[in-house]
Structure formats: structure tokens, C-alpha cells
Amino acid sequence: MKRIIQYCLLVLFAACVVVVGVLYWMGTRDDAAPSPVVVQAGAGGTAEGQRLVEQGRYLARLGNCMGCHTVPGGQAYAGGTPIPTPFGTLYGPNITPDPQAGIGGWNADDFWQALHNGKSKDGSLLYPAFPYTEYTRVSRADSDALFAFLRTVTPSSQPSRAHELKFPYDQRGLLAFWRALYFEPGVLPTDESQSVQWNRGRYLVEGLGHCAACHAPRNSLGATRAADGLTGGMIMGLDWYAPALTADPVRGLGKWTAHDIAALLRTGMAQHSTASGPMAEVVLGSSQYLSEADALAMGTYLKSLPPTQGSPDASSGSQSDAATQPSNAVMDRGGKLYAQHCAQCHQDQGQGSGLAWPPLAGNPTVTAPSPINAIRLVLDGAYAPATAANPRPHGMPPFGQVLGDNDIAALVSFIRFSWDNRASAVTAFEVKRVRDASR
Amino acid sequence: MPAVHCPDFFPLQQSMSASSMSASSMSAFSCRYRIGWSLRWIFGLAVTAISVLSPVSAQSAPGNDLLQPGTMQARVAACTACHGEQGKAGADGYYPRLAGKPSDYLYHQLLNFRDGLRLYRPMTHLLAGLPDDYLREIAAYFADQHVPYPPAVRAAVSPDMLEHGRVLAMQGDPARGLPACVACHGTALSGHSPAIPGLLGLPRDYIGAQIGGWKNGLRRAAAPDCMADVAQKLTPEDIGALSAWLSSRPVVEPYQPDPAGETALPAECGSQAQR
Q: Which of residues 366-395 of A touch B (CB under 8 A)?
């Protein structure tokens, strides 16, 4: 009997070792690398080299590389930007061509290895805060162009800052298992049943644009799953809500046209809404530089996504039921505050005024399943992102210093349930939580 | 208080009489005198009264529809919510006046907030997406606003403390290597064009908080950071005395920054070269 138990345990142990081994192998294996484009990287002198650099400059904007690799007011691509996550804070590294502090010692293959396989030059596994889960879909030609451009930026000797992660997340080797579960390297094959424009849009949305980094729900290990799609969710570490990009008419982009989406990406404004919070940063540093054709391609692809079904946030109540409707007293109080503080710009019926002051009626930022963005905007105010189309944006004043939590709760409840808006009421407790978190 | 309201309603006379009488000697009598003297300017007065009364009514009745999209006044509504109409300072003494400060000074503060040299989260948040050109335009807008200053509030501190503040501000303390405030901030403490602010008309708490901010790195400027060097040498007693004395001083009109390049500064300041 004893021998049988011993035997079983041994088999179990061996099975575990095999499973762990297989997972480790899955998490560390490479995708076969397509052959590099035959262009001398850094050969800026030739016309072809120069074209590659310019293409890379455009792609670096699309990927918003500076968002994580440049601090405000700091040297471009010298790194140091904190990226807060529930697992600790990561810092974007120096990716200038400095041989010691940056990636001056890398070649185009090493760069491809990072972008496509999520591995550093020395083979160590990269944290997926660097969105290689999406960048893996970038073509080898675009990867080479990006690398050629990064060779031309001014080198910085500023050393990359070490990540500050909690145990066990600071154990890089464990990333192998995360990758085995959630990372599949590979470029997207062209979908022949769709238009060239749609395929280009999907390439940008699912690849360099890395929209899923914010607009897809994440599980407790910080992973997004392709099956969930771009159904929206709270942005990990930032306390902003990223709306669904699906065809849902209330929570998603159902009422938007592809041109509306392109306008928001390029100008920061569309007829329904103005970019705010992290999306304002994206417009500012990245999407405003999209060519008209690329922006429209992204809009076209996003418009083809099916409506939200069974997403984790769908149940949290964007459509108000009786239990979450604001009371008459709250609506009265909110209405008075609205007339006093908001109507001057956003107008009596929440219709807004041109592109200076966005409408609140039918604005998805107002009616989102989570009220957090609306609460933050009332508390902290905001300027629309400055873009070529809107270089001198109008600003929304902060009200956190003049209105208390109860007043802001009533006000936000009022705008979420007035006109044709039918979103759930907000409590003073929710306002307080947002206020405390953003201190 | 007629001495305060007089220049508000009759700004034409204010500039005309500035050479013949100092604003600090203004009284109800001088106001009436100047009204009589200026009857022949009646048309000018009518026009001026209309233009000056409009923003006054805007202050008294927030929520009316005076803001027009596309105007600078509308674009800076996010600023004036705290800093007061036309940037004349907030209600509670914490949000400083912006109106009439040297344009480059305001521009540098906007840059420094946006880029993290000066730490105050609400400002950094608002400015995050704004380009240099627009910040320069916003700075120029507030530098061009000329609204009357409220009367100074005399700090309830001992005469010795006020005297200590006065000596530091006017003479400095050469033994400790402390330059006088007037050496940089203008002979009448009204600032120095284009980038050194005046020090009068500010609340006592605000002045104390700013010097404290320089001392502990919450507020910084372009290197070499001369004001940080000065703040490092100030003791808590010095800071208390300076903020008490400066906030007690009345603002004497015309309160204009000294012209650029008139005096040599006692220290090299990066803020003066920052563009």
C-alpha cells in the first residue's frame, strides 16, 4: 500500500514537473523571425534609409512610445516614466541609442525580439506593461522602420530606473508562466474577406495602437484576453474608466460613424464627446498624428466590432433600473447646481456649444457604466487635448474645491439621468473615494 | 470705500492723475474732484463705464451667459474658477492673483507646473495637454488684466517682527549672504520685467507657503535656481517676518514692474534666461 502511495506521489510529481516544464517552454519559446528588411538601419544618408526613418517616426507616434519612454519636460525617449500597476510601479526604460544607458548596442533583430517576442537583447523576459502582447502583431518591416528611427534620436546617458515591484512579481522568471497563459506571438494574417481599409484598421487597433491595453477588461493577473474584445473596463492603476469600443449604442460606439471616431482620434473632439483623462494623453501624444486614411481605417475596423455581449462590466448597470435611479430630491438639488455652475457652457438641455463645450446629453463619458470619469472631470476639471485642429482648447474648471461630495454626487446623478440620459445615480461615497484616490 | 471704487469706475482719470497725485493719498474728496474735472470727457466716460461695468456684473452674477466660446475669457474659465475673475485672486487667500504679473513670470510658472518643476497636482493636471505657445498666450492674457488691488491687511504681529521683515526686504542681510528683496523684485517691490514678480498684494499665508516651497523643493525654477538658494538661507523666523511685512504693505498705484534690464541682479538666475 505504502509503495503504491509512493508511486502515485512520484507520478504526480513527475506530471507537475512536466506541466511546469511545458509551460516554461511555452512561455519562453520564440516565434520564428521573418527575415529582416534589407535596408541598412541608420543609413539615413540614402533616400531609402531616410524614408525608413520617417516611416519609423510616424509609427513611433502611433505606438505612443513617448507615453512610457519620456517624462514630461524630459529628453525624448530617455525613459523614467512611472507606470503604476497593482503589482508595483514600472519605469519606462531609456530607448535612445546610447550604448550603455540606452539600446545603442542593439541591432534590428534584437529590437524585433523585444517587440515581437517580448524579450530583451539578453533573452530576459520583459514585463507586459510594455504591450508586446499587442506589438507582436507589428510587421517586421514596421519594426525595422521604428528601430531605424530610434537610431536617430539624441542619445541620453540617463540610466534606466529599476522597477519597483512587489514579491513575487519582481521575479522575472515567473513571467514565463504568465506568457504561457496569456501571450501568443505572431503577426495577424490578412483577412481576405475584408477590405484593405478594414485590415489596415485592425492592424493599427490590435497592433501598435494597443487599444486593448485600456479598452479590454483585465483579469487579476493583469492580462487581457482576445475573447473579451474591446468591451471596456477600469484602467488598471489609473482609476479611469475606458469605455467599450464595440457597437453597443449606449456603452460603445453604436451611435458613432467611422468618421466620428477618426475625428476624435485626430482632433480630440467629436460631436458626441471630447477626449479626457488617459485618452486625452493618447490624442495628445499619439493619435492626433494619424494620417486621415489611417484614422478612418481604425474607425472602420472598430465599427465592425459586434455589440457588447456578456462583458464583465455590462452587468454593472449602465442602463439604470429602478434601484439606481436618482430620487426626486437628488434631481432637484442636482438641477439647481447644474443651472448655477454648468448651464452657462453646457446649456440648458445639455446640448453644449459647438466644439468649445461638449454636449452632456448623449455623451458616453457621462453615461458610461462607471461614473468615475464624470466625477473626476467635475472634481478636477480638464482642458481638451491641444491638437493641430484645436491648438487653443477651452478648459473645464475644477469644482472639487467649491462643491462638497453630496453636491457633486447630486450634480453627476442629474446629468446622468437628464434629457435622454438614463445612467445610474452616484453616491457621495463614490465621489469621496475618487476625491481621496486622486489626492 | 470710494478710494477703492473710484479708479474702478473712472480708469481714464486714474492714469491722468497718476502724475499729479499718488494713489495712496486718494480720498473721497479727490474722487469727487476728479469727477468734476473730467466732465468734458463725458463721452469717454460713458463708453468706459459700459465696458467696465460688464465684468463687474459678471462677477456679481455667476452663471449668466456672458462667456462667449472662442474668447480668451472663455478659454481661461478653468483658471478663473479659482484665481478669480480676470485673475484678480481667489476668495480664500490661497489662490494667488495672476492679473498684472509680468508675462514671462506667469509663463514660466505654467511651464514649471506642467513639467513638474513646481508641484501642485491640480495645476499639473489642467496644464498637461497644453503646448508652449498657448501657455504663453494665457500668461499674456493675465499679465494684461489690470484690476484694483484689495486693501492690504496688516498682519497682527509684533512691531519688532515687522521691522525684521522690513530690514530683510529692503536691505537684506549681507553677513548671511542674503540679498534684499528689492534687489531683484523691483525698487517698489512691484516686480521686474519680464520675469520677476512683484511681492505686494499677496496674502500672508501664500507668501509663507511659497518660500517654504522653495526651501523644501516643492517649488523650483530653471537652474541656477537663485530663489531656492535665497530660501535655503532663510530661517522660519525670517519667513514669518517677511510674509507678515510684505502682506501688510499697501499696493501703491501705478504698480508696474520695473523695465527690463535696468538693474544688475545680485545673482545668476536661470529663470531670467528661460524662454
A: 380-386, 391-395
- Please tell me the distance from the alpha carbon of residue B189 to that of residue B187, in angstroms, as a whole number: 5
Crossing angle for the helix pair B28-37 and B2-9, to the nearest 10 degrees: 30
User: Is B152 domain-assigned?
Assistant: no
- Is A196-314's fold the same as A325-437's? yes
Q: Same domain, yes or no, for B77 and B52? A: no
pLDDT band at B17 (very low <50, low <70, confident <90, very high): very low
Task: Give the residue extent of every domain in chain A.
Answer: 13-182, 196-314, 325-437
Interface predicted TM-score (ipTM): 0.84
In terms of CATH architecture, what is A196-314? Orthogonal Bundle (1.10)
- Asked whether the CA dihedral A297, A303, A306, A307 is positive or negative, the reply is positive
Other Cβ atoms within 10 Å of A36 Cβ, number: 17
Residues β-bridged to residue A132? none
Residues B179 and B221 in one domain: yes
Chain A nearest-CA residue for B72? A394
For chain A, the residue count is 439
Q: B-chain residues within 8 Å CB-CB of A381?
A: 78, 81, 122, 125-126
The closest of A180, A251, A190 to A217, measured between CA atoms, is A251
Residues B267 and B170 in one domain: yes
Same domain for B15 and B1: yes
Q: CA–CA distance from B229 to each of A158, A438, B71 (Å)?
A: 26, 32, 40
Q: What is the mean pLDDT of residues B223-250?
A: 94
Top-level class of domain A325-437: mainly alpha
Q: How far apart are CA A84 and CA A90, in angstroms?
A: 7
B65 vs A contacts (CB less than 8 Å): 344
Please spell the DSSP secondary structure of A220-261, one letter per residue. Answer: TTS-B-GGG-S--EEPTTT--EEPP-SS-TTTSSTT--HHHH
Across the interface, of B77, B125, B134, the residue whose CB is closest to A391 is B134
Which residue(s) pair with A89 in the sheet? A84, A164
Give the three cell numbers for residue A279. 485618452
Q: What is the pLDDT of residues A61-78, one digit of tens each?
A: 999 999 999 998 899 999
Asked whether the beta carbons of B112 and B118 are under 8 A apart, the reply is yes
Do B56 and B73 lie in one domain? The reply is no
What distances in angstroms separate CA A426 from CA A154, A275, A304, A405, one per listed residue?
A: 49, 22, 33, 10
- State the DSSP string of A160-200: PPPPEE-TTTT-GGGHHHHHHHH----PPPP-TTS-HHHHH
Within 8 A by CB and 6+ apart from B250, the residues are B24, B151, B152, B200
Asked if B77 lies within 8 A of A345 by C-beta distance, the reply is yes
Strand boundaries in chain B, DSSP class E: none
- At B121-136, the pLDDT tens digits run 899 999 998 999 999 9
Domain boundary among B147, B173, B208: B147
Give the domain extent around B35. Answer: 1-66
Residue B258 and residue B168 share a domain: yes
